[in-house]
Structure formats: C-alpha cells, structure tokens
Amino acid sequence: MIIPLRSATGTPRSAKRLPGRDLFLFAEKCLTSTDLNEKLTLTRQAKALDDRGRLEHDGGRAPAQPIAMVRFPERPVTVDPRELPRRKLTTPDGRAALLHALAHIEFTAIHLAWDLLYRFRGLPDEFYRDWLAVAAEEALHFELLRGRLRELGCDYGDLPSHRGLWDVAEDTAGDVAARLALVPRCMEARSLDVTPGMIAKFEQIGDEPSAAILRRILHDEIRHVALGSRWFQWVCQEHGTAPEDSYFELLDRYLRTEVRGPYNRELRLTAGFTAAELDRLEGIGN
Q1: Helix (H) and strand (E) counts for the chain?
Q2: Is it the case that residue 88 has pLDDT exceeding 60?
C-alpha cells in the first residue's frame, strides 16, 4: 500500500506578493504568473539566493494552494497531441517543430520541478535544494532551445503544443511517491531513451548547434532522473514499502498511456534504475 505524504491546500493568496526570502513564496509566484519572462527571472533569482544560503526552506508560512492555481502563458495554444502536425526533420519547418516541442517540454519541466518542491512540505532541506536546482537547469534548457528556435526564424509560442506532462502533475498532486514515480522516473526518463537518437539525427543533417544543445540537456537529465530515483527510494523507505513493487503499482494506477520501450539500459542504470526494474519494464513495454 502506498501512503501519500501530505499535499496541503489553503486559501489563495495574491500572486503579487514579493517572494522575499521564502522559497515557497518564490515557487507560488512563479507557478501563478502568466508571464514567461517573469517565470524565468524568478527561477534564476531563487537559485542565486539559494546558492548564497539566503532562502528559507522551513515549509512556508502558509500551506500550498491547489494545483489548479498554476498558470501558463496564453501561447502556445494547446491541442490534442493527435492534432500536432508531423514534419520531417530534414526540412526547416520540421526542425523548428521538433525544437519547439522540446522547448515546450523543458518549459513545462520548470513548472514540474517548482510544483514538486512547493506542494509537498515537511521533507528534508536537501529535497528542496535539489529540485530548485532542477528548475534552474530546466530554465536554462528552455532558453537554449528558444535561442536556437529564434535563429531558425521561429519563437516559442508560434506553434501549438499539448499538455500531457502537466496532466501527469495534476493526477499526482496528492502523492509525492506517485509524482516522483510518474514524472522523473517515467516521463522524464523517457528522454534518456530517445534523446541519443535525436542527437544522431541532428548530426546527420549537419545541425551541430541543435545537437550540442541536446547533448547538454541529456547530460543534465541523467542527473534529474537520478534525483527522482533517490528521492523515490527515500519516500518508500519512510513509508516502509518496497521501491520496485511500489513503482510498478503507481505506474499501473496513474499512467494514462502504455509503458513503451525500447529503453536505454546504460543511461537508466546510471540514473538509478535497477536491473530488475528494467527487466520488468522491458517485459511489459516491448
């Protein structure tokens, strides 16, 4: 049985309140803002303050608002994934479409990291430092991809996107074990399987700038998934549950789509998956 850690709700507060030195007010302001640049600025500011030991991680002065309070910019327009056009990478439009999709994943990932540290209180201080660092790296990834898009004559928001990643966040808002299992250890772990192939394709068409960005992202994502593995195991230990059995129980309970391979065993092992977990995944996902 999985016993969820608490996910508190409370009376909404104004998103205009200055964050000060409270990590959770920074998180709330970033999550409730509809301004893309403000979200990036707040993330950078919070990480810089935390690096100097000037942010408080004491649980916040007020409980977390419901996840429905999270806001995104008006653009890009969200559509059903089946409505997104399929384009070949060998065309300029195809490259822009793929990079835009990746930028949207990274932009959503900023919110996933912020919401994880904001929503679940009473955890070790290191948990909050770890996921703030992830939020800052996801912001850097987004900015790198956005810069490359602009070099190709496009910008983030010019093309439609879908909200599949955020649907997972909403589904797991009441259970930190489920959030860790479904986001870093499932959705984000998928990038370890597919990104090496995307890098190779960009190299084949001579787009070294895009390939270099993806190499940087892959390097960082291995560590992000590893943090998910570490903290998932910690939560299971606190609850007295077996991590492997809990992981597959949570996938079965929350995942809206089928688990699919193939899996990059080398990178997943580096990121904290066990050989037994990978054997089970390959048994149901191929």
Answers
A1: 11, 0
A2: yes
Instruction: Determine contact, residues 167/256, Cβ cutoff 8 Å.
Output: yes
Cβ atoms 38, 96 nearer than 8 A:
no
Amino acid present at 167: D
- Average the pLDDT over 202-214 and give the result: 97
Closest C-alpha among 164, 165, 155, 159 to residue 81: 164
Burial class (CB in 10 A: 0-12, 13-18, 19+), 52: exposed
Contact 4, 249 (CB under 8 A): no
Name the token pair of 122: 């009473």
Structure confidence at residue 11 (pLDDT): 33
Give Cα 92 to chain centroid, integer Å: 27
Q: Please tell me whether the peptide bond between 262 and the residue prior to it is cis, using omega within 30 degrees of 0.
A: yes
* Domains assigned to the chain: 23-285 (1.20.1260)
End-to-end CA distance of the chain: 27
Most distant CA pair in the chain: distance in Å? 53
